[in-house]
Amino acid sequence: MKAGLEHTQRLRVLYCILDNRFGGPHRLALTLAQRLRQDGVETLFLLGQKTEDIWRPEGFESFLCRHIQCISRHRPLRSFLRFWWSMPGNLLRIRRLIRAKDIDIVHVDGVTNFVPALAAGLTRTPIVWHYNDHLPRLLQGLLLPMVTALSSTVIVQSEGLKRLRTRAGSRLREKTAVIYAGIDTKMFDPAHCDAGTRTRQRQELGLPADCRVIGTIGNLNRFKGHTYFLRAAGRIKEQVRDAKFLLVGRRLETDPRCWEELQQLTAELGLKDDVIYAGFREDVPNILSALDVFVLSSVLESCPIVLLEAMAMKVPVVTTDVGAAAELVLDGQTGFVVPPRDPEALAGAVLACLRKPWDEVRAMVEAARNRVESQFGVDIIARQQLQVYESLSRRVGHI
User: Fold this and answer.
1) Domains in the chain, please, with CATH?
2) Beta-strand (E) ranges in 232-389?
């Protein structure tokens, strides 16, 4: 798609993410920004600052803005008051940023991240709005009319999510495009991780070289369904005595009770010697190479990037049927899809993976890798996003 921007100035996109703590949305945004730079799109990042644990996208200009989240589980009343007190100054600051940096498009990640969208509206800058939140009905009624009115294009990450999230009205549906998450399959390539890498990674994590490792990757919040993962682990352990269970993800300061409850449940299930909490890790390909089965136990998701990463690394996957998961993973062909909040089903699917003959497992993971390469590679997804940007730029005369 380079031809679309040849002989013209580079498009400048301000990509706005509410949370400064690194996670799936950040990994996707950075991967696409790196690819889109080749096509004449320069991305700048605006991050809401929740904590002092700040992610900075390497190689890209970024800015922080405090108190742009109106709803928080941690000290909700205090956060709400700070949000409204800070709103006029934040609107002015972001508006100045848009003008000073000659921003052509503001790309907002999350419906509740509406302060940058309001600032973009004040400067008449086109808005691409990623609708990947899970909104209670009351908030849908309050926020979706604003999204419909302000956005030029709304992006959702699966056909199922489009049907679900555009029921509010035909105008929102007309503005909505489906663009799935994408990954760099050159980075997530099992050819880069040989048997030695797998052995070293297991040693570093304190795992025996010859055990069966079932793992999950995701920040330790309640939406990720870690309690169901642990309960499934208890059932798996009864039948696979050498099984170990790996949880990779950051403990969140905003919900300390979640961590405490996970530790208590681990002890109650008698799994303290079998469950490893590895904390936040950036070397996701190496972590995946250490696994025998990857599990996504979430109760809420949009388009979980980590599923694509595991599939690309040829790790057998078991996922709950949440968000786009069943559109990414073809049940029985490229992995297993089970109902959410069902540890018995999770355990059954993991055991089915572990008991499959090796040739059947190999066929399944090869099919999974091929599916990611053909439908969810970064080049494919970046091209779709570039088409959205170019369309908006043409409307306002930048191209």
Assistant:
1) 2-182+377-395 (3.40.50.2000), 190-375 (3.40.50.2000)
2) 243-248, 275-279, 293-296, 317-320, 336-338
